[in-house]
Amino acid sequence: MGRARVYASRAEQQAAYRQRKHQQQQQPAAPDTAPALYQHWRRSLRDIVAHLDTIREQMEDYATQRSERWQESEQASNFEADRDQLEEISDSITSLTMWRPAP
After folding, report:
1. Which of 14, 71, 87, 98 has the most CB atoms around it within 10 Å of its CB?
2. Rounded Cα–Cα distance for residues 48 and 80 (Å)
3. Do residues 56 and 86 make contact, with C-beta atoms less than 8 angstroms apart?
4. How far apart are CA 48 and CA 91, in angstroms?
5. Do the Cβ atoms of 79 and 38 come closer than 8 Å?
6. What does the buried/exposed string (b/e) look like for 59-85 if buried means 16 or more CB atoms within 10 Å of the residue's CB?
7. pTM of the predicted model, to two decimals?
8. Angle at Cα 39 formed by Cα 42 and Cα 43, nearest 5°?
9. pLDDT, tens digit, 9 for 90 and up, residues 9-20
């Protein structure tokens, strides 16, 4: 025993779907509360910092596995500068006031 059909045809079903979508777009989005947004942003920033830390660690491993000749090259200096810049970005993010939970 199946479910009773709501729409007589597939075209009618699609038209009803388009109408519902149009009505949803006309309604303003419910405002999110500030605490919920801050919590979401903090979570996202923690994820970003974790990714940056992983990238920096991988870059360090990569650099140490390279030849001594490469490690003394200008390319290695640029690579190290990029790695240092990633650390600065990470530090900048963690210094944001929104990083710390509200008291």
Report:
1. 71
2. 20
3. yes
4. 11
5. no
6. eeeeeeeeeeeeeeeeebeebeeebee
7. 0.62
8. 40
9. 888 888 888 888
